[in-house]
Design goal:
Layout lengths: L19 H7 L5 E2 L4 E6 L3 H18 L4 E5 L2 E6 L9 H19 L6
Antiparallel strand pairs: 1-2, 2-4, 3-4
Helix pairs in contact: 2-3
Length: about 120
């Protein structure tokens, strides 16, 4: 549970759409956006490194049950998260973005990003 979002009057609901202020206050490093959608671009030295990253992100998303929009542009990958059912960004999106950051950090430390 994310304690900073707990409001005893509302209960904790990770699927509740957040306000722009909530999103901006809790935005993971490297991400941009607002209550509608958050995104981040990742750069690679080769097309194949980008494809490999996309496959890893897809596996992570499948395991979490929360999926980003993924766009592959030659040596750049753009990920965007939003919760369709909520009509914008929820805590699920912020948590998923943090998980992608952790994956990026892990791959970067082993040289698997090609960047």
């Amino acid at each position: 549970m994310c304690p900073e979002l707990y409001d005893p009057r509302m209960g904790y609901d990770p699927t509740r759409k957040l306000t722009d202020g909530d999103v901006l206050d809790r935005m993971p490093e490297g991400w941009w956006g607002d209550a509608g959608k958050i995104g981040r671009d990742f750069g690679f030295d080769t097309y194949q490194a980008g494809v490999d990253f996309v496959v890893r992100v897809a596996a992570l998303a499948e395991a979490r049950g929360h999926h980003p929009d993924i766009h592959l542009y030659y040596r750049r990958v753009r990920l965007t998260f939003f919760t369709y059912e909520a009509g914008g960004v929820t805590q699920l999106d912020l948590d998923a973005a943090r998980a992608v950051n952790a994956l990026w950090d892990e791959l970067s430390s082993t040289g698997e990003t090609g960047a």
